[in-house]
Batch of 4 targets.
Target 1
Amino acid sequence: MRVLIIVVAALATLGLAAFGVVAAQRAVQPASAVVAAQAVKPAVAVLAAPVREKLAQPSIQAAVVAPAAIAPKPVAAAVAAPAAAAEPTRLAQNSAASNASATAGAALANATPPGSHAAANNALACDKPGAMGLARVVQIDTTGGPAFGFEHFKQYDFLREHEVVLTFDDGPWPENTPAVLKALADQCLKATFFEIGEHATWHPEISKMVAAAGMTIGSHTWSHKDLARNPYASDIEQAKQEIEMGVSAVHAAVDGPIAPFFRFPDLQQPPVLLAYLAQRNIATFSTDIDSFDFKMRRPEQVIKSVLSKLEKRGKGIVLMHDFQHATAEAMPELLRQLQAAGFKVVHMVPKAPVTTIAKYDDMLRAQDKMSANNTRPENSVVRTISGN
Ligand SMILES: [Zn+2]
């Protein structure tokens, strides 16, 4: 009996020790060291992986491997404990922020840089039983403008089998974008939104909601022009303006950091503009799986399109549109079916935010219909002098 108690106590200690070791690793390891296999792909680093997967293996090993080897490690556990204990506080703040006002959320987003490890660990937290939750957060180093999406670019293949990245284009848009955000939040998921500059100018409060919900926001030009056609194809200055006004407008709408992530309208990607984006250190995202949801009216069609293509390919960056009503409607069921089919969602974050160019920020301000001259109240400027 006594022997049994000792064995049970020893196993319990080992379990705690293993937990501490994992916590310590999570707390101190640099992103590049977390997954060595990613080292050959410099553009992508794994920021965080789920705790439950990591916990399971070391615990089992600890129970089987010689106890003496594990014994000193509770020290590491004790050291790591405060860092691990600090997490839930930040998580609580984060989940509160998604319900709070857009302004408060944006302020929080500023306090926790989107590409930071703290933000990545927060992103993995999920307080909803049975929800999908994120499988991983990957950090994209956009230096030199790496391009992703197997439809056009095949160098970087960072997803594992059954992993998906969810991306949404053409927002922000009333009703549909908030519906997509809610469906994602209900499953503790995050996605990347490629917003159109003009739309962000019309609905900045929705861009702020997207940011406050912890999503990654990239841009998708100023007014959704096909940049492979004239006048853009023959005039790079006009094409640059279309790209940069989009960056400046989305940045202004969010009123905080956005990602140096860009998607070309209609996936038309002229080489000269890819070279320009490379020089701007902005990553280009094509797609692995194009849902063609913009051609669909019914949510069931969107679900079928995404799932059948994913099942064929096994994994991928999925292109959808938060601008589309059918997609917004499809999201809750689509996510349920993805989970049932064993797919896991990976979230992309940038290593550093995009920098806007002052010239285009100024152009954006010039677009503004409001004039700085109009400071006097209307009734002192315009007066009825005849009639009623
Ligand atoms: Zn689009």
Target 2
Amino acid sequence: MSEITSSLNGPVEYELQPGKKYSWCQCGRSKTQPFCDQVSHKGTGIEPKDFTVSQTRKVWLCMCKQTKMPPYCDGTHNKLKKN
Ligand code: FES
């Protein structure tokens, strides 16, 4: 398995729509962050996290890729070393 990478330290606010399928980038390599671009994770052994919501929700999506509650920010980014 390749290492998870992300140069972004902190979540992004996003409004999720019910009935829509989302695919959150878990490897950090996607060119369409915070979502999977269906290409960049190939060969890493890291798969995107697919999810849906049942109602419109404003959420904070993790961009550091270290959250324990994917795809949502759980504050872990605050404990990471900053470059
Ligand atoms: S951005 Fe907050 S836990 Fe990853």
Target 3
Amino acid sequence: MHHIRSMTLADLDEVVVIEQQSQYAPWSRTLFVDGFKPRYENWVCCDDDRVVGFAVVQYLLDEATLLNLAVALAHRRKGLGQAMLLHLTEHLPDAVTTVLLEVRASNQAARSLYEHFGFNEYATRKGYYPAPGGRWEDAILMQYARI
Ligand SMILES: CC(C)(COP(=O)(O)OP(=O)(O)OC[C@H]1O[C@@H](n2cnc3c(N)ncnc32)[C@H](O)[C@@H]1OP(=O)(O)O)[C@@H](O)C(=O)NCCC(=O)NCCS
């Protein structure tokens, strides 16, 4: 059975492994450490004591931005990504009305997850992400309106 709790610095070894198996251009450990400050929230999803997923969110006035989200390869398609989105939306500060994020155009798994959850696409940022072969890939901007 999984549970979601705040990330600690002691989780970073496991978090960085998941990040490296999840992203073409993974965040460094330093970037994760940067998220341990006011206006950020970092969560891990655990299966027993093992970290199997994480989410990083930043709050600014009435907006929350989901900066990073990943689930370990062996634990995907078990509802954990959706569970972390639910946790995020259930723990928004009162002032937040909208959750924003950016996702690679080719990332069908993540786009499906977000659409399934209730995010809408509202813009495209051309050539935003580095991609294999020296190419650049569009970012799809998505938003979720708090009810
Ligand atoms: C995107 C990601 C977080 C999804 O996590 P997950 O725990 O596997 O997702 P869930 O099991 O909660 O999926 C919920 C729904 O999302 C959609 N979905 C998730 N993965 C999908 C896939 N590979 N293909 C199609 N739809 C998918 C489905 O609608 C799914 O519901 P279903 O299983 O009942 O069909 C995971 O694939 C991942 O870590 N990817 C690499 C990192 C990444 O891309 N992060 C997002 C950056 S913006």
Target 4
Amino acid sequence: MKIARVEAVPLRIPVNFSSIGIDHDEFASFTYVEVETDTGLIGHGLTSITQARPVAEAVNSVLAPAIIGLDALAHERVWHVMAWTATPWAQSGYASHAISAVDLALWDIKGQAFSQPVWRLIGGARDKVPVYATCGFSFLDDDQLADVAARVAGQGFKGLKMQVGRPGLDTRKNPPPLSEIIASDTRRIRRVREAVGPDVEIAIDSGCRLDLPSAASLCRQVEDQNIAFFEEPIVQNDVRLLAELRHKTPIPLTAGQNEGLAYRFRDMLLAGAVDVVQPNVIITGGITQCLRIAGMAASFNVPISNGGGAPFQNCHLQAGVQNGTAVEWQFNAVIACSAIYKDPPGHKDGWMVMPEIPGLGLTVDRAAVDRLVDAR
Ligand SMILES: [Mg+2]
């Protein structure tokens, strides 16, 4: 069964947050990928948290010509060809997103070819996974944040995640001093704790936007708030600085959702830089490379979890391997993906039940994909 067609489409999907009681509109950027075999099977993949059009171009003009004609079930062989085609001098960047989306499509095909859901093909460690909700967006004011946190906790989620450190070191946006941002974050975390009570887990995520002193300061000021984990606290996921921060705080640290290269996780594990690693199947080289990373983490007795959203794809990794844990129900990503998949999986009482449908278990609304093309 050979790869016959590879097609990537850049998407710009309008997202409205009315489902969590907020009147806010924005656009989400996703790249949708289809791979078709010479037997007519079609698999689909996805990537995001980057610009959609250069990723689509990388798939269509760089990866597709290199892999058409290869065995669609030989995921290690295809991954090797893609990596050496797009990143022969150890680049990462957009190439990692492009490779991830194609690799996901191949795993979707593999599941269909063997009539099994992907999570069972890769190990079937559990048939349901816990989900936590990311709803504490930086665009919410303090009152809205507390209101949304209480509303989302009321939907059955046992854990919530909120954005901190924004805009932080993101100097494109002329940020306020980091000390002001930390003071604001401290106040907002306390508001959320008041709103949801003691039994709901609260996690925080700075998206790599803080330096070591600021991240350490925030940790000190919210240590009494029972923070479940601090995700990507340090700029560039600097491994040495993460390890230093980990020695300064009892709050567990996590990182890795946007890393493209497996050795970055090896270095985090060797340095004892994080408590949990977070490879994301739509970004970190697809299922194929995330399995390598999960295996590395297992050998250090470290769990993996999902940061960076895309629960419909990442649930397969978290359910499939023994050291998998939670999936992130990232509201803007879920709302965006719900525009292109028919009847995507839901959650109940903080759990997602894994689908029995072969492959990724997602039905694409191709008319919606074509309607949402980013044609700017
Ligand atoms: Mg994150």
